[in-house]
Design brief:
Blueprint: H1 6-18, E1 21-24, E2 27-30, H2 34-45, H3 54-74, H4 79-102, H5 107-130, H6 135-138, E3 142-143, H7 146-153, H8 168-188, H9 193-209, H10 211-227, H11 233-251, H12 258-277, H13 283-294, H14 318-334, H15 336-347, H16 354-365, H17 378-385
Antiparallel strand pairs: 1-2, 1-3
Helix pairs in contact: 2-4, 3-14, 4-17, 5-8, 5-9, 8-9, 8-10, 8-16, 9-10, 9-11, 15-16, 16-17
Amino acid sequence: MKKFNFLFLLVLFTIFIYTPQIIVLGYTLKTIFIFPLISLYYLISNNFTIRIPRYLIFYYWIILIFSVFIFIRNGYAETFIIKQLVLFPFIYITCQFFLDYGFSYNLEKLVYFITYVLLINSAVILFFSIFSDLNPILHSFINITEKQYKYIYNSLLIRHSGLSVSGFSYLGFYMSCLYIITFFYFIKKKFSIYFFIISIFVFTSSFFVARTSVIILSVFFLLYLVLTSFTNKKGIFGIFLSVSLIIVFINQIPNINIFAFQSIDRSLDFIFSSFETGEFDNKSLQDLSYERSSFQLDNYLLGDRNFGRDLGLISDIGYISFLKGSGILGLIIFLFHFWYPLIRQFFNLNFKSPVFFVLITMILFNFKDLVFLEHGYIQAYCIVISLQYCNHENKN
């Protein structure tokens, strides 16, 4: 069994989770390219054997064959599908590398490392959102996209990405999924002070990332309370109260960048007005409603030969993209890796597990953006479906 230094493992795991683009001597290093190297190292040292669910092997071969068929039928190859099909095996194998060599399939070690990387990025997001004049220091070695640059430097509404090259709803969604995985571990042990602090950092930083993450975490807490008859309600209510007090406190500090609090005000106003009126007055949701009402499909089985990405954006919504490019058949096949393990959870009546909540979140998120196999959010998927291989020492 390979052993790694704690700090080295933490840095490597942080890179795996956030895939930052690091600026070194004027050159931008895209850390995603270390995934094939780690995968090759793990395969060779492990005699080319890895733990992988049978349905995932079956799914991958089916999707490869179906993709070739769809590309020939459509007359072009969709870049995002090719890219994600190429990257996914490397991401999954890299995940197994960490679970095996990094954490020895120990659930506690895995969960604690997830909390470490959540705390690191949440702290970076909070610090550089509040003290925005220091952002050039961060971005002298962390690269960001042009869109992200605009929302950090040239916008009245801060949307920070921390160590990631880009943030917004994708990063908020991703960090929320990782938090949900850790939540179910700590909830069995009852809320510790450590996890309470982690929760406050993640929840507070979500206001500076995207309203998506605020909504996901709020709805998750409410659903969990309902499904578990308010188990550990004091801990969850304490998180809400603490985050509220922290926001009020920071807002009283002089010389703090007021733009940061416009991000908070917008998020809070959206949430409270939604509960008050019973309607979600949000541009993304309005766009979703419009696209749903105006959506047309000529070929329901195999789609209209255009995924709406390479040939010009048709829709941000994942389901519309798959329906337009590959029809109902393609929608079922391309998203089978979400449906199958979730259906198993339903049959096992296991509605209080990270697998159930994370997969539900991914399926619902496709109503806003496209979630398939790309790096970023898919790391959370690989982790959650690999929990079955971990040693659940704290299982009740």
